[in-house]
Amino acid sequence: MIVPSMLLTSLDALPPSAALWRAAEPAAVAALHCPFCSGLAAGTLPRAAFGAYIAQDHFFLAAFGDAYAKAATLLPPAVREKHGPAVAALVSGIESERAGHAASAAEWGVTDISSVEPLAATREYCALLAAAAEQGSLGVLFAAAAPCMRLYAWLGAQLKAVARDGTPYHEWCAVTHN
Fold first, then answer.
1. What DSSP letter does each residue of 79-142 carry, written as one string?
2. Which of 61, 85, 118, 128 could lock onto 123 through a cystine, CB 3.0 to 4.6 A?
3. What are the structural domains, with CATH classification, of the chain?
4. What is the pLDDT of residues 49-79, one digit of tens each?
């Protein structure tokens, strides 16, 4: 079982990102052991639950890509020139992931991925990303997106390490930490 590391007596001794991660680590470990993640690792998650996740992620990825594309248009020209190619590559990767979701949706029981209604949490997080993008600062957008991306990457790495071979979700667990 994965357990939180011992918190330091003073989080001030750490760089801010490490201090924030240490403070959030117990919640991350709890997320890792939730029924959804446990079912992914064991291969026992109901297919419909994974299909629902894929549909929500498809919606989220659209908003995520839109937020970065919007922020890029609002950047000052010098910043856009410097960071525009990286943002364009990120948006392209997001579009590829969405295409993969759309292509595999039926396999997971989602007949029309484009008509799936987002859950409240998905809709609210997407609204947060859109509001951050409207500020025209990649820093603000990074701050809004980083906690989700960091948790997702960490969960993916943990799941990859423990996912059982031959289960329906093994391939997904193997690549999602990227």
1. HHHHHHHHHHHHHHHHHHHHHHHHHHTGGGT-S-GGGPPPPHHHHHHHHHHHHHHHTT-HHHHH
2. 118
3. 17-175 (1.20.910.10)
4. 999 999 999 999 999 999 989 888 888 899 8
